[in-house]
Design goal:
The protein is built from ten helices and seven strands. It is of the alpha+beta class. The chain has three domains: 123 residues, 2-Layer Sandwich (Phosphorylase Kinase, domain 1); 51 residues; 48 residues, CBS domain Like, CATH 3.90.1280. It binds zinc ion (ZN).
Length: 266
């Protein structure tokens, strides 16, 4: 409770206690359940009904919404017949008594889904939720191109890591590569050079080309020294050497190694 300044005081407020049917004096205990990037979640047992509830304190919006907690409340209301989402009981997005949005919903016991083995059930959950009919006037956001919207969201979120000096260079490179796969080359150029008046006048297919060959890589093998090659021959196993530039693998048999050592193929 102490992690959120003012939360202890907040749950003493009569408007909260009345709305939740709680006794005038705080006798319920709030235990930290889990904290994510956007929410801090507390669990408490209602002293009158004995039911377990989850009190959510919202600290940010993944969707960049001003009214994040109310939007969430509204969405959960609309989805209440899905059989998959918790029922909601209280929302306060005023940010007046507490600098954060507050939501109370029923606590659904269980464990987090592990997508490595729970993919089937996870898909069923999402299918049930998305099967609930919604109408255009329901006030839910629906991007015209959902996959593009997710990619743009990823770009937004990854910025923190990319801009941080604590980020690992190799990880940054891998992330950039993955994100770029979702973009066309024109989009990448637009992103990098868009404000310089970029104009694409022609396109030609491009491919990576490496002129390595078994013979070329052999020279590298020969350069490691007779002693080391002798050692490999003594081990009696084929060796595999990869090209530094394109990662193509070349195999050399013990016989090949002997010839390399004796300059036979050089
Ligand atoms: Zn190569």
């Amino acid at each position: 409770m102490d992690r959120i300044a003012g939360l202890k005081e907040y749950v003493r407020n009569p408007f909260y206690r009345e709305a939740m049917g709680l006794p005038g004096v705080v006798c319920e205990e709030y235990r930290l359940l889990a904290q994510g990037e956007y929410n801090m979640n507390y669990i408490f047992t209602h002293p009158v009904s004995g039911r377990e509830f989850l009190l959510r304190v919202n600290c940010g919006s993944q969707m960049h919404l001003e009214n994040q907690i109310e939007y969430e409340y509204h969405a959960l209301e609309l989805l209440k017949d899905s059989g998959r989402t918790p029922k909601v009981f209280y929302v306060d997005g005023s940010l007046k008594e507490l600098g954060h949005g507050v939501l109370v919903m029923e606590y659904l016991p269980g464990k987090s889904l592990d997508y490595r083995k729970d993919m089937g059930i996870a898909a069923q959950c999402l299918a049930d939720i998305h099967s609930v009919p919604v109408s255009a006037g329901d006030g839910l956001l629906s991007p015209a191109d959902p996959l593009r919207a997710i990619l743009e969201e990823c770009e937004e979120m990854v910025k923190v890591y990319m801009d941080s000096s604590l980020g690992d260079r190799e990880t940054k490179r891998a992330l950039r590569e993955l994100l770029d796969r979702g973009c066309t080359p024109e989009q990448i150029l637009e992103e990098l050079l868009g404000d310089t008046g970029l104009e694409i006048t022609d396109t030609i297919p491009a491919r990576f080309y490496c002129n390595c060959s078994k013979e070329r890589v052999e020279k590298a093998v020969a350069s490691i020294g007779r002693e080391d090659i002798q050692e490999m021959i003594d081990e009696g196993k084929d060796i595999e050497v990869k090209c530094h530039f394109c990662n193509s693998a070349y195999t050399y048999t013990v016989e090949d190694l002997r010839q390399i050592m004796h300059g036979g193929k050089r």
